Amino acid sequence: MGRADIEAVAVYFVVKVDNDSLGAFNSCEGLGCEVVMEQREEGGQNGWVWQLPTRIKYPNIKLTRQVTADSEKITKWFANMAGGIRRMTATIEARNPEGKKIASWNLQGVVPVRWTGPQLNLDSPKIATETLELAHHGFVAA
Fold it and tell me: Are 86 and 110 in contact (CB under 8 A)?
């Protein structure tokens, strides 16, 4: 296993929306895309079914972290949406423990879908975490 393979083992994710930092997150799920295929059967052709690509779908991205001082930025973002929802651009950077960027993804048409705050319960003390879910219209080149 080379050094490049080891770099991606322990990463964190820095998120910026329209160049405003939302801070660092411990996990990032949902980065990906899927080509939707339409199947067409051709009369007299029994050897295969036509597989026609139609569109690309992008799943929502879920970012999770411990509650920090940056948590306030997310609640302000949601509060500002009361006046109207505006799609934005976002960048997610994977960084190693030394802060070196390993990879990045630029997203277009970003809208926050859901924020889940910490479960606060004195009977079962746990680390307070939050999750931010983002919808987007796909990737763009840097």
Answer: no
